[in-house]
Amino acid sequence: MIFLDIILNNINEYGWLFVSGTKDTLILSFFSVLWGVVFGTLFALMKLSKKKVLSIPANIYIEVIRGTPVFLQLMIIYFGLPLIGIRFPNVSFSKYFPEFMSALIAMGINSAAYVAEIIRAGINSVDKGQTEAARSLGMPQKMAMKLIILPQAYKNILPALCNEFVTVIKETAIVSVVGYTDLMYSANQVRIDTFKVFEPLFVAGGIYFVLTFTTSRLIARLEKRWARSEA
C-alpha cells in the first residue's frame, strides 16, 4: 500500500514529465515506422529485383542491420556522424533536435530492414497470376507493381506493420542514452530528482504497457474487421 502511494505521488508531482516523455516516444515511434515503410518498400523492391546491382546491396543492408543490435546502430549514428562532418544544429522549436534526429535515423534504419522483409513477404504472397494478368493487358512491370501488386501486398501485411509499430514503441526506450526526452528519459529524471529507484520505472513500465496493449487490441479489432469483409 505504501509502495502504491509512492507511485501515485510520483504521478501527481511529475505527471507532466511522464506525459511529455510519452508524447516524445509516440512521435519518435510514428516517424521511425513511417521511415521504415518508405525505405523498407524501396529495399524490398531492390531485393526482389533480378539485377544484382540492386539486390546485393539490399541483401547486405538487411542482413547487417537485422544482425546487429539497435543500440550499437544508435551509438554509431550519434557519435559517428559528427566525425564525418554531419551535424544537426539546434533549432528554435526544440533544444533536443540533434538527439531526435540521431534517434530517428537509427530507429528508422533499423525499422526499414525489418519492414523490408515484411513487405517482401507480402509481395510474394500475392498470386503471380495477378502479375501475368496485368502484363497481358499491356501494363509495364512498374505500373503493375504500383497499381496491382503493392496495394494487395500492403493489405496482407498491414497487421504486421502495426505490430512493428508496437515493437518500435518498446525499442525507443534505448534512445534516452543519447539525451532524447522519451519516456525512459523522463523516468530517469524523476529517479534523479526523488532518489527513488524503482517507483518511476514502474510508472514508465505501466505507460509502456498501456501504449502497447491498446495498440495491440486495436490491431486485433482491425484484423477481425478485415476477416469479416473478406468473408
Write up what this structure looks like:
With 231 residues, the protein is an all-alpha fold. The chain has one domain: MetI-like fold. It is 82% helix and 0% strand. The chain has eight helices and no strands. Helix 5 (128-136) packs antiparallel against helix 6 (141-171). The model has no long low-confidence stretch (mean pLDDT 81).
Q: Main attributes?
A:
82% helix; 8 helices; mainly alpha; MetI-like fold
The biggest beta sheet is recorded as: none
Query: What is the CATH superfamily?
Result: MetI-like
Q: Based on DSSP secondary structure assignment, what is the total number of beta strands?
A: 0
**Element string (H = helix, E = strand):** HHHHHHHH
User: Which class best fits the helix and strand makeup?
Assistant: mainly alpha
Contiguous uncertain segments of 5+ residues:
none
CATH fold node name? MetI-like fold
The total domain count is: 1
Break the fold down into its secondary structure elements and pairings.
Layout: H1 2-48, H2 52-66, H3 70-83, H4 97-125, H5 128-136, H6 141-171, H7 183-194, H8 199-230
Helix pairs in contact: 1-2, 1-4, 1-6, 1-7, 1-8, 2-4, 3-4, 4-6, 5-6, 6-8, 7-8
